[in-house]
Design goal:
Layout: H1 8-21, H2 28-31, H3 35-42, H4 51-61, E1 64-69, E2 75-78, E3 86-92, E4 97-99, E5 117-118, H5 127-141, E6 152-154, E7 161-163, H6 164-181
Organism: Citrus sinensis
Protein name: OVARIAN TUMOR DOMAIN-containing deubiquitinating enzyme 2
Length: 188
């Protein structure tokens, strides 16, 4: 939103602090895991970009966040209940989010791109919304997403194979100490 690609560490801290500061709203039952490891995780480089985080960022910026999922073409809207007057859009490829922007012309400098859109009557952002959905459908057709439920990975060191995010998380728990001590286990 500020065209600052180095803002991620600060935003991770904002998210972690928000979760830690309201343990009633962000309870273990709501988050799905214990609050302490969750706060540590959210402040690490392994930020998972879940709905909780996007909701927190919508409140932090005082803007709606429309998150388009390429695989399903679904759009989740965060902050809509607050009726913010502006919206930003993200596109999710199964692994991470990228900001969507409209450029005034091809090759225009990044500072000329529009990333914040006024919310109009009917809670729409007009033609920008249609362009975003068109892009998402095009990316889905090209299969530019990662199917995290069904991808297959193999450790380049020990040759253990995993299918999908659930198995990867299980293997990740086994190798977490080794990975933090060295880069021995590389999945590709």
């Amino acid at each position: 939103m500020e065209h600052d690609k180095n803002k991620a560490p600060e935003l991770r801290q904002v998210i972690a602090a928000t979760v830690a500061s309201d343990t009633v709203k962000h309870s273990e039952a709501f988050i799905g895991k214990s609050i302490i490891p969750c706060v540590i995780y959210m402040s690490s480089i392994y930020l998972c970009h879940c709905a909780i985080e996007l909701s927190i960022l919508a409140d932090y910026y005082g803007r709606e966040i429309a998150a388009y999922d390429i695989q399903t073409t679904r759009c989740d809207l965060y902050g809509q209940e607050k009726k913010y007057s502006e919206r930003v859009m993200l596109i999710y490829d199964g692994l991470h989010y990228d900001a969507l922007a409209i450029s005034p012309f091809e090759g225009a400098p990044e500072e000329f791109e529009q990333t914040i859109f006024p919310v109009q009557k009917g809670r729409t952002i007009g033609p920008a919304e249609d362009l975003a959905l068109k892009l998402v459908k095009e990316q889905q057709r090209k299969k530019t997403y990662t199917d995290t439920a069904n991808f297959t990975l193999c450790c380049g060191v020990c040759q253990i194979g995993v299918i999908g995010q659930k198995q990867l998380k299980y293997v990740d728990q086994i190798f977490i100490i080794a990975r933090h001590e060295s880069d021995n286990h590389i999945f590709s």
